[in-house]
Amino acid sequence: MAKKKGEIKKSETLLDMVLGRMKISCPSHKRFKRVTFEYESGITITIEMQD
User: Fold this and answer.
1) Which of 9, 24, 44, 45 is deepest in the core (most CB within 10 A)?
2) Cα 11–49–25 angle (5° rounding)?
3) CA distance to 11, 27, 28, 31, 38, per residue, from 43 (Å)
């Protein structure tokens, strides 16, 4: 049970990191069409911008 809680907390941390980077990149979002986040754990998140 403790491991599951740890995994969930870790996932929330990754989400917070992505959301944080999105907020930082938001002002210049017109410069790129696709953003890819790669993490050491093997998770890859790709965000594609639409005009």
Assistant:
1) 45
2) 65
3) 10, 25, 24, 24, 6
Task: Please count the other Cβ atoms lying within 10 Å of the Cβ belonging to residue 24.
Answer: 9
pLDDT classification of 19: cutoffs 50, 70, 90 = low
Distance (Å, whole) CA 17 – CA 21: 6
SS (H, E, C) the chain: CHHHHHHHHHHHHHHHHHHHHHHHHHHHHHHCCEEEEECCCCCEEEEECCC
Amino acid at 36: T
Mean pLDDT of the region 37-51: 78
pLDDT at 50: 66
Question: Coil, strand or helix: which one is 36?
Answer: strand
